[in-house]
Amino acid sequence: MSETAPNTLQYRFDGPEEAPVLILGPSLGTTWHMWDRQVPELMKQWRVFRFDLPGHGGAPAYPAGSVADLTARLLTTLDGLGVHRFGYAGCALGGAIGVELALRHPERLASLALIAASPRFGTADEFRQRGVIVRTNGLDPIARTSPDRWFTSGFAAAQPAITEWAVQMVRTTDPGCYIAACEALASFDTRAELARVGVPTLVLVGSDDQVTGPAEARTLVAGIPDARLAVVPGASHLVPVEQPAAVTDLLVRHFSTAWQPAFDHSTGQTAIPAAPVKPVLAAAQPQTAPPRAEIAPAAVPPQPPGRPDPYDAGLKVRREVLGDAHVDRVLEQADDFSGDFQEFVTRYAWGEIWDRPGLDRRTRSCVTLTALVAGGHLEELAFHTRAALRNGLTPGEIKEVLLQAAVYCGVPAANSAFRVAQQVIREETTPTE
């Protein structure tokens, strides 16, 4: 096991030192052991590099809140080992890292396999909600339901030891790192950039995956110019564990076909030209990736010359704090009468104030809750209580804010605020089975 600094990842190598490097990236809540069944065959041709996400598998708990940050840590680790070119296969969050490599660091990547992956994983609201649940209840509720998300029911029933291994793997993950990884997935969206992925790509998915299933896989294949689809029957989300032989065979065939290493005597390094990818199990029919929703701003006064318009930054912050569903609902209800006001709120409240660096979002939530109690704005208090949970406040901390507000804003105002906040906290922090 490797020594790990805050900007690097815990890793291990398997296979001959002179072989080209093939990296295997894990999914959220797992460790490098999810690839145990693939390694013996893969190491016959490649030097297999596996890594753990921060706080997973006993790795030091240095949270990383974006896929770009995780990718940077992986590259820093590889730079320290002298690994400059490699093939990469990643599952789910590990697949997001693979897409980030292909888009931002194409010179490092020779060939790519995306397993149980998506250009966007669900919705930002879903992952931030999961973070709220973990912050409030710990990882046990997530751990207990992981087998339902990861495996088909038949596999889970027939393999109780593997099912329990999955539960314990999640349960022993650092909660702060898990929450940060949820935030990384919440902010990950590469739908508009897939055409720039320039390496041969295998998109592999379990036929019964209910998390990132065949529909998401076909979106990847439709968007990536040189991609092929492989659907593994009888497998769910953690397909390398559920169908190890099929996944191993597909990876060997893909990387053997799409990656022809040759030693470059002028540089002393392995040069890896890309070759055309051949179909594996199934070639997806071309499809059009779903368009990103665009919101046309209403007519507002122009910004002063030379000053950047804070609208886009404000809309981003507003969505991150209040959630896509809430913001979409509010903007859809806007009309000629209220549209300018929503534009004003997005630009100035969210773009000018909430996006300022002077206070973190937790502190801004405390200030906002107190102001809303003082003003008796209970409807706004409800969605800002929800926002406070997303911004990292615990129910106990929200209670302390409201207790202090009772002293300075009055007991009747705080009484109403407690009633509203209690209902929101119950809704937001109750795990779904």
Oligomer: single chain
How would you state the average pLDDT, rounded?
89
| Class by alpha and beta content | alpha/beta
How many helices? The count is 18
Question: How many whole angstroms does the radius of gyration measure?
Answer: 24 Å
- Name the helix and strand elements from N-terminus to C-terminus, one letter apiece: EEHEHEHEHHHHHEHEHHEEHHHHHHH
Strand order of the largest sheet: 1-3-2-4-5-6-7
Calculate the terminal CA-CA distance, rounded to whole Å.
36 Å
For the structure shown, list the relevant keywords.
433 residues; alpha/beta; globular
In short:
This protein is an alpha/beta fold.
What does this structure look like?
This protein is α/β, with parallel strands linked by helices. Helices cover 50% and strands 11% of the residues. Strand 2 (21-25), helix 1 (39-42) and strand 3 form a beta-alpha-beta unit. It is globular and about 70 Å long.
Q: What's the topology here?
A:
Blueprint: E1 10-14, E2 21-25, H1 39-42, E3 47-52, H2 67-81, E4 86-91, H3 93-104, E5 109-115, H4 124-137, H5 140-150, H6 153-158, H7 160-171, H8 175-186, E6 201-206, H9 214-223, E7 227-232, H10 239-242, H11 244-258, E8 262-264, E9 269-271, H12 311-322, H13 324-333, H14 339-354, H15 361-375, H16 378-390, H17 395-409, H18 411-429
Parallel strand pairs: 2-3, 2-4, 4-5, 5-6, 6-7
Antiparallel strand pairs: 1-3, 8-9
Helix pairs in contact: 2-3, 4-8, 5-7, 12-13, 12-14, 15-16, 15-17, 16-18, 17-18
